[in-house]
Write a structure and sequence with these properties.
alpha+beta; 7-stranded antiparallel beta sheet; 3-stranded antiparallel beta sheet; 6 helices; elongated; disordered N terminus
């Protein structure tokens, strides 16, 4: 027993070392990303607060400007895009703010096609795109809102007049500066510069509140049983054995409701059936199948209940039925393997743990405050799990948490959390 205990401590200790190293590496990578975004948000606020810097118009600019019109930014590698499927999920909503692009490469949203390519010019009065085949311009007085995509360098411009929504797409490396110049120019032209600074300051504060907690150290009790199988050949052999056991269970049926001949039950040996058609001392292979004729009264004692039998059944690989969780699987009371008390099927996905949600309430959809993708199409019963504002469904953006703890949605008139202390942080889908 001493050697066995020492072996258990050994493999558990090795697993703890590997797991803690993995958690530390993941935390450091996430912390670097958090610090990088914090610096980008603070830089955006600082640049938006400073007076507008004029850009030097390149020679031969293919735009006819007014006498007192000022050029603020020029991007020579721009694309004119058009929304072909207006109700496609994932399109950005109009908000008076600028946020850095998310890390990683994001494919162009569906429902958006490239119409032309050319030069984009931002002035103090309008945005102009001079393409190969056409020229499109948006005077700021005719724009109802600007929508920046969080993961793609795409900006949609919602015009006040009816029609298809168009926009501009610029290289990812130039997206941050181009978006800031365009949004500041639009805010100055519409008298919303102070509101823009407030939104940028809220973004900095919200991100600061979302500081990452340190990694939780792993303990030997957390080590799964599969960590003991360190050799790939042994893992493969166990997987094959489990697959064969599963197939055998389908062929031969589930756990019998009475003792099997030769199997120890409560410390004894099962009694051979002596009913009609089953002679005394008959071989054991026919015993597992239930007889079609009930046994004669008084010939055998009443079998123990099924639950008591299952408790006393051996657990070796050769006699354990497929309905019992194997040693390499999860615990026996896992929600995926045990039905509920009322007989209804177990949920297809367990609710996330509080550590995975970063303070978000328990819910079956994986909504959390840690990170992931914005929730543009929340579940219809989301307010059964989150405390929502009364006009949640009047918004058409993504879910956010307000400073007073209520859950709202962007894209509302005046802002989703305008009457609830401002926006605290987004709600993510894992």
């Amino acid at each position: 027993m001493t050697a066995k205990d020492g072996e258990a401590r050994g493999w558990r200790a090795r697993w703890v070392g590997r797991e803690n190293e993995r958690r530390r590496t993941a935390y450091e990578a996430a912390l670097q990303a958090w610090r990088r975004r914090d610096e980008e948000l603070r830089q955006l606020y600082t640049e938006a607060e400073e007076p507008t810097q004029l850009a030097e118009a390149p020679a031969g600019l293919p735009v006819q400007l007014d006498d007192d019109e000022v050029v603020l930014a020029v991007e020579a590698a721009a694309e004119l895009v058009e929304v072909t499927a207006r109700h496609t999920a994932g399109l950005p909503t109009a908000e008076l703010t600028v946020v850095p692009l998310e890390d990683g490469s994001t494919p162009q949203p569906r429902g958006v096609s490239v119409v032309d390519a050319g030069t984009a010019v931002v002035t103090d009065r309008r945005l102009i795109i001079v393409g190969r085949d056409e020229q499109e311009e948006w005077p700021y007085a005719r724009i109802a809102g600007i929508a920046h995509h969080p993961g793609d360098p795409l900006t949609l411009l919602h015009a006040k007049r009816p029609g298809r929504i168009r926009g501009v797409r610029v290289p990812r490396t130039a997206a941050s500066a181009f978006r800031l110049r365009l949004t500041v120019a639009y805010a100055d032209a519409t008298g919303a510069r102070a509101a823009l600074l407030d939104r940028l300051d809220d973004a900095v504060v919200d991100h600061w509140h979302d500081q990452l907690p340190g990694p939780t150290p792993a303990s030997p009790a957390d080590a799964p049983l599969t960590a003991r199988l360190v050799r790939p050949a042994l893992v493969t052999a166990v997987a094959v054995a489990l697959a064969i056991a599963a197939v055998a269970s389908v062929v031969h049926g589930s756990l019998p409701d009475r003792p099997v001949i030769g199997m120890e039950v409560d410390g004894g040996t099962g009694v051979e059936p002596t009913g009609p058609g089953v002679p005394s001392g008959s071989p054991g292979p026919s015993a597992p199948d239930s007889p079609t004729t009930p046994p004669a009264t008084g010939t055998t004692s009443d079998p123990p209940p099924a639950a008591e039998f299952r408790t006393a059944a051996p657990t070796s690989a050769t006699t354990t039925p497929a309905t019992t969780t194997p040693a390499t699987g999860g615990p026996r009371d896992h929600p995926r393997s045990s039905p509920s008390a009322t007989g209804s099927p177990a949920p297809t996905s367990p609710s996330p743990t509080p550590a995975d949600r970063c303070g978000a309430p328990a819910n079956p959809y994986g909504y959390n405050y840690c990170g992931g993708s914005y929730v543009y199409a929340p579940a219809s019963d989301v307010c059964d799990y989150f405390a929502c504002v009364d006009n949640l469904w009047s918004g058409n953006g993504y879910l956010v948490q307000c400073e007073d703890g209520l859950t709202s949605r962007t894209g509302m008139k005046g802002g989703g959390c305008a009457e609830h202390g401002g926006t605290r942080r987004p709600v993510y889908a894992a």
